[in-house]
Specification:
Structural class: alpha+beta
Low-confidence stretches: none
Distance between the termini: 11 Å
Order of helices and strands: HEEHE
Mean pLDDT: 91
Radius of gyration: 14 Å
Protein backbone atom coordinates (compact mmCIF):
# COMPACT_ATOMS: atom_id res chain seq x y z
CA UNK A 1 0.00 0.00 0.00
CA UNK A 2 2.78 2.42 0.93
CA UNK A 3 4.68 1.66 -2.29
CA UNK A 4 1.56 2.34 -4.33
CA UNK A 5 0.85 5.55 -2.45
CA UNK A 6 4.43 6.71 -3.06
CA UNK A 7 4.35 5.67 -6.71
CA UNK A 8 7.12 3.07 -6.40
CA UNK A 9 7.38 0.32 -8.98
CA UNK A 10 10.25 -1.90 -10.00
CA UNK A 11 11.82 -5.33 -10.14
CA UNK A 12 12.93 -7.40 -7.15
CA UNK A 13 14.99 -10.58 -7.47
CA UNK A 14 14.73 -13.05 -4.59
CA UNK A 15 17.15 -15.91 -3.91
CA UNK A 16 15.38 -19.06 -2.68
CA UNK A 17 16.43 -22.34 -1.14
CA UNK A 18 13.96 -25.11 -2.02
CA UNK A 19 13.79 -28.54 -0.35
CA UNK A 20 13.21 -31.79 -2.22
CA UNK A 21 9.46 -31.53 -1.57
CA UNK A 22 9.31 -28.22 -3.43
CA UNK A 23 8.85 -26.03 -0.35
CA UNK A 24 10.77 -22.76 -0.09
CA UNK A 25 12.91 -22.99 3.04
CA UNK A 26 14.55 -19.57 2.83
CA UNK A 27 14.22 -16.43 0.75
CA UNK A 28 16.14 -13.17 0.64
CA UNK A 29 15.97 -10.15 -1.62
CA UNK A 30 19.03 -9.64 -3.80
CA UNK A 31 18.11 -6.26 -5.28
CA UNK A 32 15.30 -3.88 -6.05
CA UNK A 33 13.61 -1.00 -4.27
CA UNK A 34 13.77 -1.58 -0.49
CA UNK A 35 10.10 -0.70 -0.08
CA UNK A 36 9.16 -3.64 -2.36
CA UNK A 37 11.60 -6.24 -1.03
CA UNK A 38 9.45 -7.36 1.90
CA UNK A 39 6.47 -8.10 -0.33
CA UNK A 40 8.67 -10.00 -2.79
CA UNK A 41 10.25 -12.13 -0.05
CA UNK A 42 6.80 -12.87 1.43
CA UNK A 43 5.53 -13.97 -1.99
CA UNK A 44 8.61 -16.14 -2.57
CA UNK A 45 8.13 -17.91 0.78
CA UNK A 46 4.62 -18.91 -0.35
CA UNK A 47 5.83 -20.33 -3.68
CA UNK A 48 5.65 -24.10 -4.20
CA UNK A 49 7.64 -26.01 -6.82
CA UNK A 50 6.75 -29.30 -8.50
CA UNK A 51 9.00 -32.06 -7.21
CA UNK A 52 9.46 -33.57 -10.66
CA UNK A 53 10.71 -30.21 -12.01
CA UNK A 54 13.51 -29.82 -9.47
CA UNK A 55 16.88 -30.69 -10.96
CA UNK A 56 18.78 -31.51 -7.82
CA UNK A 57 20.50 -34.61 -6.59
CA UNK A 58 20.74 -33.35 -3.02
CA UNK A 59 18.11 -32.53 -0.44
CA UNK A 60 17.92 -28.85 -1.50
CA UNK A 61 18.34 -26.64 -4.52
CA UNK A 62 18.75 -22.90 -5.02
CA UNK A 63 17.36 -20.48 -7.54
CA UNK A 64 15.95 -17.03 -8.04
CA UNK A 65 12.47 -15.62 -8.57
CA UNK A 66 11.98 -12.20 -10.13
CA UNK A 67 8.92 -10.15 -9.22
CA UNK A 68 7.79 -7.11 -11.20
CA UNK A 69 5.75 -4.46 -9.39
CA UNK A 70 3.91 -2.09 -11.68
CA UNK A 71 1.44 0.68 -11.03
Amino acid sequence: VRAKREGVSGKVTVAVLVDKKGTVRSARALNGPPILQGAAVAAARKAKFAQDKLTTQGPRTTGTITYYFRL
